[in-house]
């Protein structure tokens, strides 16, 4: 072979070798591109799934925000209502306190007035009065006060103390006279007999069993209290 032929043959072999090398490079590049595309597709699918999850979470968050806003509004309304109720209740309580104080004063006044016509009769042993306490006390008061008529009594009863034992001081009578002037008359009679501790014991018509009890109708230091 001549030198030209050898050179041409070498060039041809080099060309074939270069073409083969380029083909291999292209195939490698295509393979890499396919792998990259597959990875990108996989990652894109994962990203899409995450985006869907985020959207769902955002929707849930929006619902929670809406519910929270409603609860906040309800709480504000309840707070406003409770404030109004508290103010109204405070006003009502103050009014009721004022009314209670006024009623208490009236009750005390009425209680005091109801006791103005009360007298206390002490020293009469239990069982002496019989069944009709009011008539018994009226008779005693008539005798000890030297009255022409039997005084009118609204009620008569012994005090609520425990029943005394034998030898103990008997429970006094609480008597309410119907007319206030009768109490005045009893008080005047007591003052006239104030020199003695036991008053009205000089009444000639008073039964002796009453006189021996120790006795009737004194105020504070005696047996008759008005």
From TrEMBL:
InterPro entries: Transposase_22. Residues 1-24, 61-81, 149-168 are annotated as: Disordered. Residues 61-72 have a biased composition (Polar residues). Residues 7-21 have a biased composition (Low complexity). This is Uncharacterized protein. It comes from Eleginops maclovinus (Patagonian blennie).
